[in-house]
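Q: Hi! Curious about what non-specific serine/threonine protein kinase looks like structurally. Here's the sequence.
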Amino acid sequence: MTDDVHTQLSDPLVGRVLDGRYRVGARVAKGGMATVYEALDMRLDRIVALKIMHLGLGDDAEFGRRFVAEARAAAKLSHPNVVAVFDQGDDNGTLFLAMEYVPGRTLRDVVRQQAPLPPARALDLLSPVLSALSAAHDAGIVHRDIKPENVLIADDGTVKVADFGLARAVTTTGQTATQGLLMGTVSYLAPELVTDGRADARSDVYSAGIMLYELLTGIKPHSGDSPIQVAYAHVHADVPPPSEIQPGIPPYVDALVQRATARDRDIRPADARVLSRQVRRVRSALDEGLPDDPELTGDLTIPIQQMRQDNEYDDGYSRDYGSEPPRNDTIVVPFEGRPFADMPPEQRPRTTNSAAHQMPRPAPPRSRSHGLIAVITVLALALGVGSAAWYYGIHRYTSTPMLLNKTAAAATTEAGKSGLGTKLLAPDFSEDVPAGQVMRTDPGPGDRIRKKGQVGLVVSKGPERYNVPQLAGLDVDAATRALESVQLVVGKQTGVYSDAFPTGRVILFSPKFDTSQKPGTAVDLWVSLGRKPIPVPNLTGKPVRDATKALRKAGFTVERTDQFDPTVPLGVVISQTPNSGTLFGKDKVKLVVSKGPPMVEVPNVRSKKLADAQKILTDAGFKVKVELAPFHLGLNLVAGQNPGAGKLAQPGSTVIVTIV
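A: Let's find out. The predicted structure is below.
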């Protein structure tokens, strides 16, 4: 049994019915504040996503208020790119939201599997996110937690923004974070949320710009040894142009990213709607195949250049903290006052060009006699500063050796030759690097690392493959969930009639059961339409033999009943049940077949004269055939008859009389 199955079985919420309405199913995702489950709305018979606050948080009145506020804020938004919120409830202290269930994947999956993306593709993914944020900003709502994990991509390609759990209604003066705490995901955090905790629409614009940078390059713009260093970088370092990582990116795309991620919020687009217009202009330039558009680039860049001209100093913050920060980088940061001022020096984020390392400008010499002394002083100061820079900069660092495509043990040995240690990071899948070999290091090969530091090793698990589960007999919803649990998706669905499978059940599927497939592979389903309806032909008046043959050929069984009928000839169908509409294969059709008119008693004509006997039999409905006895005497008297007197015979049949 897998760990996930153990988790589901041990989760006390799975199987529970909340508010008498929502039956909790499999767990979908878990966040810092709540867990999301797939659930059945038993009242409306539909699948929903149920977001349930973690146990214990519901006891905190402030958390409870914020959780309820999420429902009210999100309920204001009715937009095709926003995950709809249906309901909010409290089941004996268990707070929950019922939301639209969006089967598919997240933008994080796209970044992990496909980034870096072409600029056009990146902007196409960002546009619906901005459309959702535009609706939120129009309603006075700031999301505050825009990141790839909160962008869902449905199986049909629809992009939806989820989790307005940190969203707050914006007043004209802005909204300050509660009790001096800042909540958010640090890699996408706007600088103002670090420095003073104030968020507005421009904060979401900044996060969207960071997300665009990551789509274009496959990495985040700021990294560090700890979340606090990443937060510091957002405040003190500009986001670099994506073309530094991907040289083919046009200048106007660089300018768009840097405009959206300007540290000064007044430089950024005022809200998501303004950024959307800029994205459309950039997208049009890409469609035209322009390697550069000086006018567009200038329009996006001029405010940034003006800001940099107004700031005559450079805070000199270095972004060189490693190749990529840990993925689990949610942070709670105090922002009252100066956020880093009271930290001990050894705990402060590193800088490479701080005031302590800047060479002071020497005062002009007062006379020629002081010139030599001034020069010596300057040289001494330069030597001291240079020595300090060498010691605290170059001397303390070395380069990360090439450890890729080695086993973890071999990589550890190789790192040890450079005086470095290693640590195993979470393994990952790779299409190119065999299982058991190092596919990525942190820092990357050739990047700077402290001497005696540790290199993070990401070991390949080999190609990401999943076996197709057994789907035959499942309904489509259950089959969809079974495929999603192994990163596969439902492909083409074909309806076929089946006598063996109830309506809506999977009959066949392709690829076959237990075959290994790449994530995202579409599995085609053949789904039962139930038993095939067959039109019933009306065969009344037909000979029973022909009627029976036709019904059996159509797939029916035939039940026959015979009865006399004075109006219907013998062997002809008198009636049929049913005689129209549709039935299913092997269903029964009843036929009533004529036995002709009822039988009558043959009169006794023995010893009668032939003429009298013929009249009597004819009046009784029979035909008469006359035969002469071997010893015929010419008396014309009836000596015998067949059928005999008193026998039952079919009216219209022949009675033979023998005369002497």
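A: A fun detail: The CA atoms of residues 116 and 218 lie 5 Å apart.
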